[in-house]
Amino acid sequence: MYLGLDLGTSGLRGLLVSEDGTVVGDATKSYDVQSPKSGWAEQDPAVWVGACLGVLSKLATGFPAEYRALKGIGVAGHMHGATMLDHSGKVIRPCILWNDTRAAKEAAELDETPGFRELSGNIVFPGFTAPKLLWMARNEPENYALVSKVLLPKDYLVFWLTGEMSSEMSDASGTSWLNVEERAWSEILINGSGMRRDQLPDVVEGSDVVGQLSVERAQQIGLSTDVSVVAGAADNAAAACGVGAFEEGQGFVSLGTSGVILAAKDRYAPDPSTAVHTFCHAMPMKWYQMGVILSATDSLNWLADNLGHSPEELADLLPDKPFGPGAVRFLPYLSGERTPHNDANTGGAFLGLSRGSDQAALVQAVMEGVSFALRDCLEALHSTGTSLGSALVIGGGSKSAFWVQTLANTLGITLHLPAKGDFGASMGAARLAMIGAGGLSPQEVMVPAAIEVEIKPDRVLTDAYDVSYRAYKQTYEAIKDLP
């Protein structure tokens, strides 16, 4: 048996998987994000530990025989978070998360530094890790002086499980400290952001075994110290492993808290000017490119909070099939935007409201606005020479038939819903454990997901969505500099 842990922004999932890939157990534990100031997003790593203990307890109780048969654990997690530890391994302050924009000024400074884009293969975005440490040096010098090691969120869980500090290629790619082409830390990038190499753990591949469960942890969670823990992967790289997207031309669209269009690559081919991310994949000598929007289902969650309904209740206001673009336009820039704008300061907006704009119209506008933002990502990928003729669609938003069909109409490509539900990142983490701890080959493990539903663009409506998308693009240009 193998366990995949997925450390998400709003909760942790654990997936028990047998060697043949069958899911035998599933457990989740939710938690919140703290925003002490506007634009800030933080979590105390103790919350992750508590959630992990809760998930493991549920699995041990619900699936005792399978749980005791664990051979390996893999961990996936949200990227870019800065988890700072002192010399004793104690957390210094809450982790600064991927959607935190406080370091926009520092990111711009590093991005303008000669060599940063060339070595890292990416724009230095405000959510990346390096600018957060530079912000901390300037604004929290007493905390910064204590920093002995910086771990990414899922790497902190690996440390908690094993007592060993590590990072791995796919996650480290989003720090602005990694030479993504050479798959190694760059002294130039590290020193250029004011850090030292000894403040970062060694970087390894996703299926590499970091260590065994420590004696303390094994006793606490009721397992043997013979259980191996692999390095794991960043959430989107893990999701790609979970659905078998690691060969050139394979990819997916994720309607999660953030939105992603990802395409696997056999070679390193960056184009930072497009604001497309070029990162190492979790498998050796594989890369991937992706466009990222910061508020996908988070936009619907925001609307639900303000209307006093659940996201599911709002989604149910719409039919299964769209009838064409709505009159209300929504810009989903609630936390700024990455691809293609790299704009931490822009804000979201509703346009075209009238007295006839009811809740269903607002929900439709949100789903269309997120779809148009993902079309921006696809256009940016195309500009780098990367193309997708079809893609899997995963994430919580994929449960809405209206949203998925709107997305297909907007992107103009065929989308596929996987047959076994949304187990992408946790399944990918388990698969990496099968390779590293179980000795299975990638060809045996990284098989494509079975397809349950195929969603083709509605050719009667695609022209209308294209016109609406063009208007959406012009809207951003018109309002981006408004105070």
Automatic annotation (TrEMBL):
It catalyses: D-xylulose + ATP = D-xylulose 5-phosphate + ADP + H(+). Substrate binds at M79, H80. SUPFAM superfamilies: Actin-like ATPase domain. The active site is at D235 (proton acceptor). The keyword Kinase applies. Residues 1-242 form the Carbohydrate kinase FGGY N-terminal domain. This is Xylulose kinase. CDD domains: ASKHA_NBD_FGGY_EcXK-like. PROSITE patterns: FGGY_KINASES_1. GO terms for molecular function: D-xylulokinase activity. It holds the Pfam family FGGY_C. The keyword Transferase applies. Residues 252-436 form the Carbohydrate kinase FGGY C-terminal domain. Its EC number is 2.7.1.17. It comes from the Bacteria. InterPro entries: ATPase_NBD, Carb_kinase_FGGY, Carb_kinase_FGGY_CS, FGGY_C, FGGY_Carb_Kinase, FGGY_N, Xylulokinase. Keywords: ATP-binding, Carbohydrate metabolism, Kinase, Nucleotide-binding, Transferase, Xylose metabolism. The record marks D6 as: Important for activity. Belongs to the FGGY kinase family.
